[in-house]
Predict the structure of Heme exporter protein D.
Amino acid sequence: MMHLPNHWPYIAASYGLTLGCSLILGIGAALRLRKSKARLAAVEGHARRRERSAL
């Protein structure tokens, strides 16, 4: 009787890679979003100050 190799390590590895990549991409997106919000707030603040000085 031939013994076939167990396939569970491959399944675990695929799930691990999927979760790892999703985590890395999600964290990167959250960091980019935080940076973009800060830049937008700075631009809006500058525009408000400029608008007030024009009055």
